[in-house]
Amino acid sequence: MEVSTPLIKNILLLDGEGKRVAVKYFSDDWPTLNAKLAFEKSVFTKTQKTSARTEAEIGMFDGYIVVYKFVSDLHFYVSGGEDENELILATVLQGFFDAVALLLRNNVEKKTVLENLDLILLCLDELVDGGIILESDANVIASRVAMRGADADVPLSEQTISQALATAKEHLARSLLK
Predict the structure, then answer these.
(1) What count of other Cβ atoms lies within 10 Å of the Cβ of residue 129?
(2) 20 to 30 Å CA-CA from 111: which of 1, 73, 83, 90?
(3) Distance between CA atoms of residues 92 and 30, nearest Å
(4) What is the dihedral of CA 60, 64, 67, 72, to 10 degrees?
(5) Phi, psi at residue 122, to the nearest 5°?
(6) Are 34 and 14 in contact (CB under 8 A)?
(7) Angle subtended at Cα 124 by Cα 123 and Cα 126, rounded to the nearest 5 degrees
(8) Whole-angstrom distance, CA of residue 69 vs CA of residue 58
(9) Which residues are in the AP complex mu/sigma subunit domain (predicted)?
(10) What is the pLDDT along the chain (178 residues), one digit of tens a residue?
């Protein structure tokens, strides 16, 4: 009996028209941009008429298990192989959604997500790396993404990129000096 680590194939965040907002692929199953876009369009088209607004839904599309949830004008998707555990995929989806909701103060809509795209991409990085699930607890993910530097009065979402990098450098320097 072969025991393996659960692997995520991709995480997609699409808008209400099926266009990319934030996507991350962890598999070479889609080698080209056109293949990725075709998969996204296929999944979006097959799921847009469902009612996945309150609870996550599970479906099998093109040989992949896809767990998805819709909120406002955003569609969240997590995909795994056909033999992957649906509950694990659903946990990853819920962790991603809840972390985004925490970081955006429950204002989960396309405009707010685009304004805070850096935080969303950091969420993806904290959640999964190379297809391997690192963390699924939304509070842990959100706190890692929104780490505050010496100036705790200014949240990360209100800092410029250079301020955020400076804060990260200070934090790293302090941890190395201890």
Answers:
(1) 14
(2) 90
(3) 21
(4) -90
(5) -65, -35
(6) no
(7) 65
(8) 9
(9) 8-150
(10) 565 778 999 999 999 899 999 999 999 999 999 999 999 999 999 988 887 777 889 999 889 999 999 988 899 999 999 989 999 999 999 999 999 999 888 888 899 999 889 899 999 999 999 899 999 998 888 888 887 433 445 555 665 666 677 777 777 777 777 6
The distance from CA 120 to its chain's CA centroid, rounded to whole angstroms, is 7
Nearest to 62 by CA among 36, 86, 43: 43
Going by C-alpha positions, the residue among 86, 85, 84, 38 that lies closest to residue 62 is: 38
pTM, 2 dp? 0.78
CA distance 62 to 15: 21
Quote the tokens at residue 133: 């699930």
